[in-house]
Design goal:
Blueprint lengths: L5 H7 L20 E5 L2 E4 H13 L7 H20 L6 H19 L2 H8 L3 H26 L6 H10 L7 E2 L2 E10 L4 H19 L4 H8 L3 H4 L4 E6 L5 H8 L10 E3 L2 E11 L2 E9 L9 H15 L5 H8 L3 H4 L15 E2 L6 H7 L11 E4 L5 E12 L2 E2 L6 H24 L5 E3 L23
Antiparallel strand pairs: 1-2, 1-13, 3-12, 4-9, 4-11, 5-8, 6-7, 7-8, 10-11
GO molecular function: peptidyl-prolyl cis-trans isomerase activity
Keywords: Isomerase, Rotamase, Signal
Protein name: Peptidylprolyl isomerase
């Protein structure tokens, strides 16, 4: 079976945004360098990989010069981040990488399938990708710093809308607002007993003198910490889920906890040390098999909740806030939001999750569905009920109805201009060269007549 390159995994992980470069990843060191920005490089394969990422998302790729300019700007942000001492927390990098690897495991079906596809262990893949994830977060932080003061007024939105010729106004698809209440499938008593016993056996081995870190590497199902011997680093109080933190803070240094159950599974915890309001712990985590969980209890719970909502004894938004186990939507009264714009109005077209689209097609506005099977982005089994709150029919773009979308466009344009202006002002602070092959690209605002363009050191 042909092994996939790590660069392909980067695309699959969705690490590209606004033309972000891949960095100097494994497997491309011999590729041609087409731009240098201080100690950072843009490779010719970066341009090609960026084009392919658009193809993979069924979107037309921008012109080559536009891609190159975006890559150069992003590398310049990394160089400036070093100059300005902008940093990202290692824990944020680890969390981002763990989240994306979990998503990949769901997409590939198992860790084994990923290992077979790329010919490398998950640990090696993560180590190769970690620097690129860190660079992405640094670029995001620099973008936020540059565009933090960007504000858009209703007058600017109206001016933009009125500048669009009436015969060029886009036709907008139907838009809907949908709420959900989610309850996770539960491990059976038998499954819980098995996991507890396995951790008790591991605890006895530690007490008998075996190394906790070695056992964590062998048995822990927390991919992020297992490779570090279960080490979670220092955590401030309130960072960890309550059952974990409560158990950890009761321990003395080097002491082992009883078996602790949390929403993530079952933990064996060892406290390493405390430092003021922070504590340093490690753990071994075992999770139930999400494909064999009991959905009867969440189904019954949601069915009872639906009865109260349909009878108007309980409002959906309050029920979502009080009972939904999906933290991402519970506080918003269960409303789903577009991950890009943050809007609660979702386009009812090909971009919508197929199962959701199909279900809405059978529902009326104002209705609440019966409990439905649901799989979260990180692969957890659950049940949910859906609330079809509103629907706007397809229409020609309208200032009032589509204000939020228009505002997002104006904001994005304004942020892009702010980044372009920042680039022009900052270009003299870093060393930049671009290969003569790309002289026609106006990377520096004017076409280049020489083999390179160089700023100050």
């Amino acid at each position: 079976m042909r092994k996939l390159p790590v660069q392909t995994l980067l695309v699959a992980l969705g690490l590209l945004f606004s033309g972000v470069a891949f960095g100097q990843g494994q497997g491309v060191s011999l590729n041609k360098v087409i731009a240098r920005i201080d100690n950072y490089y843009v490779l010719k394969s970066d341009v090609e990989e960026t084009k392919q990422s658009y193809v993979g998302q069924n979107q037309p790729a921008p012109p080559t010069c536009q891609i190159l300019e975006s890559l150069v700007i992003n590398k310049m942000m990394l160089a400036k981040a070093e100059i300005d001492s902008v940093v990202v927390d290692d824990k944020a990098v680890d969390n981002q990488l763990d989240s994306r690897m979990s998503y990949m495991i769901q997409q590939f079906g198992s860790e084994k399938n990923i290992v077979e596809a790329y010919g490398k262990s998950l640990e090696l893949l993560k180590s190769e990708l970690r620097q690129q994830v860190k660079e992405q977060l640094l670029v995001q932080k620099m973008q936020q710093k540059i565009t933090d003061d960007v504000k858009v007024t209703p007058r600017e939105v109206k001016k933009f809308f009125e500048s669009i010729p009436k015969d060029s106004l886009p036709y907008m698809p139907a838009e809907v607002e949908i709420g959900q209440i989610v309850r996770f499938a539960k491990a059976t008593r038998e499954q819980k007993d098995v996991l507890r016993q396995r951790l008790l056996d591991i605890k006895k081995r530690v007490q008998a003198g075996e190394d906790f870190a070695a056992l964590a590497k062998e048995f822990s199902e927390d991919v992020g910490s297992a490779e570090k011997g279960g080490d979670l680093g220092f955590a401030k109080r309130g960072m960890m889920v309550a059952p974990f933190e409560g158990a950890a803070l009761k321990l003395k240094p080097n002491e082992l906890s009883d078996i602790v159950e949390s929403e993530f599974g079952f933990h064996l915890i060892q406290l390493i040390e405390t430092r003021g309001a922070e504590y340093h712990a490690r753990h071994i985590l075992l999770r139930p098999d999400y494909n064999r969980l009991d959905v009867n209890e969440p189904t019954r719970f949601l069915d009872s909740l639906r009865t109260l909502i349909v009878a108007d004894t309980l409002k959906f938004a309050k029920a979502a806030k009080d009972f939904s186990e999906d933290k991402g939507t519970a506080d918003a009264g269960g409303l789903l939001r577009d991950p890009q714009s943050g809007s609660s109005r979702l386009s009812m077209d090909g971009t919508m999750e197929y199962a959701l689209y199909s279900m809405l097609d059978t529902m009326q506005v104002g209705s609440v569905s019966k409990p439905l099977p649901y799989r979260t982005e990180d692969g957890k089994s659950a049940m949910r009920i859906l609330y079809f709150k509103t629907k706007n029919p397809p229409h020609t773009a309208n200032y009032t109805l589509d204000f939020e979308k228009l505002q997002n466009i104006v904001t994005a344009n304004k942020k892009n201009r702010a980044i372009d202006e920042w680039f022009r002002k900052s270009v003299s602070e870093v060393f930049i060269t671009v290969d003569p092959e790309f002289n026609e690209c106006r990377v520096f605002g004017t076409s280049q007549n020489s083999a390179s363009a160089t700023g100050g050191n």
